[in-house]
Each structure stands twice: as structure tokens, then as C-alpha cells.
């Protein structure tokens, strides 16, 4: 008997409905004797530990031409002070894969994990990586000992793509976002979490070819659509960088980031921008795709009334080193994803 396994019981609430059934979470151990690492659950009432990543359908070594080693990121988490309270993910194959991820986290980290998913059984789509990536959707993995879903607050929404100079509604499962509100079981405060993935099409208006301005407006309305909360946190693979080739911040990002004066509309903060103090070279070093100095197209946002600390983009080398530490081996040629993860502590106002 494994007292830590909660996923098969709890996850079923969100597979085919709208999360309307009240959950009764089992007691959660703080740190089990079976865990040899120093990582512990976060019981600090001041902040939540949050990660965001496009996990690319949990790539494995057998999945050529898009092979990977997804477990490296979990081993990295295992080497941190706290296990995640929240892991916002994009590009899951469906409810089964989200459950497998939550299960692996339970086996390697202190805490019990469950998930909320946008599409339990997403529609297929073409992919240059072949069958392992034909099915894609978005999800929120959360630690049940810290966060309890609030009945009736789950919602999903589609976003826009660029087409023939206009922004039109996309039709892919992977661009359906998901949002849900939670109660923090330590502070009894309300937390809203969201996960979104925007299309790749760059055929919109010349002022907004990726329709990022249209999508930040829609995503903002949907994430905030369940009312006010003490913390509002969402992650996105935007497929749109924060800056233009000139180095200037793009309009959509200026609208999103409350720290950039002159254009803020949506009152969000970005923990990587905060960690960098807005410095361009530092932001360059926190690229999330390609090499270390790549584009930032993956973002973790939180309501501007709150604050962040320890904002960090998890390098592939860090994942490789953690895998070697906990398993004794690693294939350094394989990455945990084609996107680098973002980690931060999000502090209550």
C-alpha cells in the first residue's frame, strides 16, 4: 500500500466534467522517510512555489526526431528547497499523460499532486515530431496539501490565430486554455491559476501578426473571469517573444507587464523581468527556446499587487546535473523539453 498515491482518485473529477464535484483531499505528509533528498513541502504562508513549462508531451529518448529526457526537470525540482505548489504545463497528450506526470512527481517529491486539464481527450493535429505529439492540451498540476479547488470555477477558452491579415478563432485543442480557482489551505486565501498556449500563426494584422495583443486581452479576461483573488497566476507558451528585432518590447508584452511604464493595460508582473531588473542582457540569458541566449516565448505572469522572488529559468545543464545526482547517469544530449522552464516564488500582497 502506498499512502501517497492520490492521483487516480482525485484526477477523475476533472476528466469529463467541469470540476463541479467537491474534493476531499487525504492528509498529506510533509516529508516521507522514503525520500532521501532535502526537498520539503512549502508550508510558508507568504508564497507559493510555481513552475511553468511547455513540456512537449513528456519527450523520451525513443521519440526521434524530437527525443528528450523529461524526467530531468523533476530531478531538478528534487534538488530544490521546496517541491512545487503549482506546475503549469502546456502540450500534454491528455488526462492520462497529466496523471502520469502527477504520479511521477509524487514518487520523487514530497507532497500529493492532482491536476486540472483543458481537454481530457484533445483532438489530433499534425506535428513535425510525429505521433507522440499529435495530441496536445494544457493543464495545471497542483499540490493538494496546499491548494483545494473551488467548485464551479473551472473554465476553458479558445484563443486567436493570425489568418490573412486578421485575427480569427483558432481550432486546435492545444490553444484551449484552462482556469480554476483554489483555496490556499494554509492561508485560506483565494488563488486563481491558469494555463494557456497560443498559436504559431504569424498571419495577423501588421501591427500584431501573431495576434498576441488579441490573445493577452482574451486570456486576461478569462483568467480573471472568476472574480477577484489574493493571487492570480497563469503561465503561457505564447509563441510570441517579448521583444522585437530592434530590442524594443512588443506592444502585447508592454500591455501585460505592469513594470514597463507607458502601456500597461492588464496589470501583470513577470518574475524573470523582476529578477533581471528589466536588464536586456539578463533577459537574453533567460531565453526559453533554442540555445541559452534564445527567445523568450514562455512566460509566468502574476497579478501586479503581488511580488516574486527567486525567479529563474531552469537550464538544461541544471536538469542534467540533477539527473546524475539522483540516478547516477544522464544523456547530456537530451533535454527535458524544447522549452526551458520558469521557476519562482510568488508572494501574497
TrEMBL record:
Listed name of the protein: Endonuclease/exonuclease/phosphatase domain-containing protein
SUPFAM superfamilies noted in UniProt: DNase I-like (SSF56219)
Amino acid at each position: 500500500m502506498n499512502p501517497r498515491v492520490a492521483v487516480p482518485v482525485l484526477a477523475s473529477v476533472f476528466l469529463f466534467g467541469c470540476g463541479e464535484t467537491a474534493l476531499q483531499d487525504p492528509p498529506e505528509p510533509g516529508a516521507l522517510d522514503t525520500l532521501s533528498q532535502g526537498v520539503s513541502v512549502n508550508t510558508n504562508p507568504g508564497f507559493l512555489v510555481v513552475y511553468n513549462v511547455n513540456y512537449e508531451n513528456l519527450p523520451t529518448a525513443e521519440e526521434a526526431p524530437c527525443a528528450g529526457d523529461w524526467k530531468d526537470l523533476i530531478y531538478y525540482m528534487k534538488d530544490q528547497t521546496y517541491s512545487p505548489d503549482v506546475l503549469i504545463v502546456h502540450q500534454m497528450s491528455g488526462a492520462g499523460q497529466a496523471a502520469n506526470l502527477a504520479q511521477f512527481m509524487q514518487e520523487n517529491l514530497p507532497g500529493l499532486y492532482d491536476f486540472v486539464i483543458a481537454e481530457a481527450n484533445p483532438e489530433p493535429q499534425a506535428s513535425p515530431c510525429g505521433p507522440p505529439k499529435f495530441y496536445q492540451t494544457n493543464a495545471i498540476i497542483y499540490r493538494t496539501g496546499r491548494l483545494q479547488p473551488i467548485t464551479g470555477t473551472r473554465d476553458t477558452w479558445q484563443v486567436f490565430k493570425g489568418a490573412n491579415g486578421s485575427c480569427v478563432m483558432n481550432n486546435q485543442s492545444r490553444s484551449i486554455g484552462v482556469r480554476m480557482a483554489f483555496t490556499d489551505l494554509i492561508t485560506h486565501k483565494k488563488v486563481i491559476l491558469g494555463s494557456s498556449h497560443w498559436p504559431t500563426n504569424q498571419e495577423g494584422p501588421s501591427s500584431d501578426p501573431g495576434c498576441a495583443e488579441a490573445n493577452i486581452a482574451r486570456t486576461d479576461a478569462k483568467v480573471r473571469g472568476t472574480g477577484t483573488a489574493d493571487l492570480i497566476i497563469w503561465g503561457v507558451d505564447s509563441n510570441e517573444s517579448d521583444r522585437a528585432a530592434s530590442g524594443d518590447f512588443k506592444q502585447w508584452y508592454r500591455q501585460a507587464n505592469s513594470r514597463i511604464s507607458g502601456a500597461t493595460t492588464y496589470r501583470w508582473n513577470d518574475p524573470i523581468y523582476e529578477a533581471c531588473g528589466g536588464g536586456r542582457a539578463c533577459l537574453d540569458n533567460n531565453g526559453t527556446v533554442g540555445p541559452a541566449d534564445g527567445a523568450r516565448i514562455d512566460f509566468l505572469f502574476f497579478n501586479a499587487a503581488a511580488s516574486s522572488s527567486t525567479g529563474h529559468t531552469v537550464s538544461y545543464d541544471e536538469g542534467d546535473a540533477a539527473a546524475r545526482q539522483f540516478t547516477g547517469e544522464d544523456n547530456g544530449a537530451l533535454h527535458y523539453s524544447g522549452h526551458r522552464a520558469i521557476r519562482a516564488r510568488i508572494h501574497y500582497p
